[in-house]
Amino acid sequence: MKSSIAALALLGLQSRPAPTRLVFRMVTAGAGHSCGVAADGSAYCWGDNAFGELGTEHRRSSLVPVAVQGGKRFASVSAGDGFTCGLSLSGEVDCWGRMVGTEADSGHGGRSDLPLAVSGDQLFLQISAGTDHVCGVAIEHHVYCWGSNSDGQLGTGDTARAYRPARIASDVDFSSVSAGEFHTCGVATDGSVYCWGNNRGGRLGNGSYTASRVPVQVARVKDFVAVSAGGRHTCGLSAPGTVFCWGDNFHGQAAGGRTGNSVPIQLRARYRMESVTTGDSHSCALILRNFLRLWCWGSNQDNQLGFNTAFAPSRSPFEGIRFVQVDAGDFHTCGTTEDGTAWCWGRNNGGQLGDGTVRSPARPVRVAEPDTASR
Question: What are phi and psi of 106, to 5 degrees?
């Protein structure tokens, strides 16, 4: 009898389909959590979940990816501080966590443990989550922002919080936008860059240190194709593949040395850059040389550079890992490779690296397969 039961059990095990490896299209790094979009458009998140930022209908944190509930499919996701927003293929925006953009009297109390539609009738081409606010480029190429506006980071001309997408005080057409800690920057369709909000350290890049509640044009460079607003600095990518940075540079997160600049300063590099991303006090860029390589520089207090040396850009720890996309969070970084594998490195106190531990390794670690019970 025991042998028959054992045979049936073995047959049952053999008949189960082999688990399918999760393939990521993109990943995003927030403050204490990270998220990614799988090949089928489903979203997964991992790390701290104190505010519902993992989208799992409960407040349990996870050291490995868990599926965002609700069955929605996304083109991209963007992780902020305690919240996440996702952009659907059709242009709608859903957010979950502590700052979803809903009215206080809507019954959600400004939080939602599950994806909640926040864009109303507006459709978006691209979105970006900052520390306490979100901005997006609508289909007519105007920028809308919502959330905290204490430093004018919504660009609406005042400091009033917006619970729903509010158009910035500008008629400029934008191709992309990036929300930082207390400032925001966007690339106009003509290649110029505009920034607004807090300007300590010169992070708005217009040659001054005065905050602005409306967009102001970044000085000197007019052929940008991308921009990334970090904690206290900003970096942009020009059409020739050159990276420029401006703002606070105490940790070397901007271009060269530790002296800050209120105008763009070129990052010295021998090769063409393909993208740039900024965290709280570090930056990373993908470099095109035979295949994409990754450079990171700035603060390395939590190993967010992926190696043991700070300040000088380095690609040494990433040899053999062919990144195609990377995103710098507050104190950690995540990226995806050609085969859809996700890697993270840096601060891991909440499990935001997704490798099943809370250790902060000095080198990139592979994001683990998701908890199958969450699928």
Answer: -85, -5
